[in-house]
Amino acid sequence: MQLRSRNLLSASGQPRRLKDEHDSSRSLGIHIKQEATEKPDSSLRAAPVVDPFLNRDYYYFCNVCNVEMPSLKVILKHRKKVHPALAKNRRPIKYVNREPNINHPKHYCRSCAHKFAKKVGYRQHLRDCHHMILKTQQAVRQNGILPDWDNPKFYCKPCGRRYRSKYNYWIHCRKTHNMERPQKMPLKAQLPDFHDPNLYCRVCNVTQKSPRKYRAHCHYQHQMKYQAPDPDSKAADDTYCSLCDKMLCSKTSFQIHVFIQHGVENEAAYLERIKLKPDINNPDRYCCNCDMTLANQRAFEEHMLAVHSLSKKPPPKEGPVPDVDDPNNHCLVCDYTYTSKLGYHLHIRKIHHMVVKRTFLQDPNHLPDPLDPNNYCSVCKSQFPNRTRYRCHCRSVHRMVFPKIPKINVNPDAKIDIHHPKLYCAKCNHYYVSRGAFWAHIRKYHVFQSASKEEYVAQTIPADSPAERV
Hints:
transferase, zinc-finger, disordered N terminus, alpha+beta, elongated, Znf_C2H2_type, metal-binding, two-stranded antiparallel ribbon, EC 2.3.1.37
């Protein structure tokens, strides 16, 4: 019996017949097939790649047989029959006919009737127990479904996740979904009505809770600003707000203050607002001078008393009047001394119906002496217990900037007792709270070298003391 010969391709592409090296004229002729050495045409070998996730987010797959299955019921039956060793210790699925929702917001598996704490655990459960091949999260996000940039609840619908703030939500939209912030409308169309009675911004579709918040929203979100006055005007260089009796540190701060706090847009509106006098008997508890409505009657009366020095009570009879600028905060009429100037001024407003104004703010060039030995502020007419609080007051209230004051030896000829029981520095006339602070002060300002161990023992242990027993 002899095998039939086969026609094979040679290197040049012509049919060729090959024989085995042991073939002879009387032996069997075995023809061996050889592959062509030429590179085949790319058009013949480039097969189209089919996307397995076409119009779906998952499919069932047997990773042992490398075969795709149509449903969960079929793959469980297949593994039980073909791979019984792998299906032996598997936990049974409660509802086989139910398809799980892989994008469930609460990570709930309908087939197993089980809820997972995190999305990672839920997806791992679908891979292990349901034998699913899941579409990657990045691929799901690129399906063409984009989140709403202005979602009020900061919820991303494609990812099924809610964010705590709009800034984190916007960062997620930019990084994950490659979104850009939508372009704003033209400037004329995007500006809200500054005098809207309902505090409604038609551009952002948002209603604010108070007029001040609405004006702040107009300023920061829509760049609405106070119109600068004429350079020749008197108010061009003035940063004093007579409505609040307050001096602002710069012209920009003044403009932002009157725009947000008082709702004035230009110099004419500000001068008109100054002329308004608040009505303490207003039934709506509205202060026209400050452009604000108070929550209750008590708050309204306290605001009128503290800010505008107005009260419903009749003025007192003629008699002695307390001194507003008393340095000891002592009321001569009531014969009572208050611990703070704030309490003293509140007493004068409420009991004696006096108008108290911070007149020092009228002259911004009048500043206190930062080296005052008594820590007394000549501008505010108040005294402070120590130099630290006094200088802090000068920085915060009067906006003074000065270098650090070096330590001064009050008694340069005095001798310091390093073992003083009360940690007292005789040269500086100062007591310290802890021994560490006391020693740090001595080393830093008095260039004191610590004594040796023998000198310290000789100074601290008397000579006639009994020897220590060993």
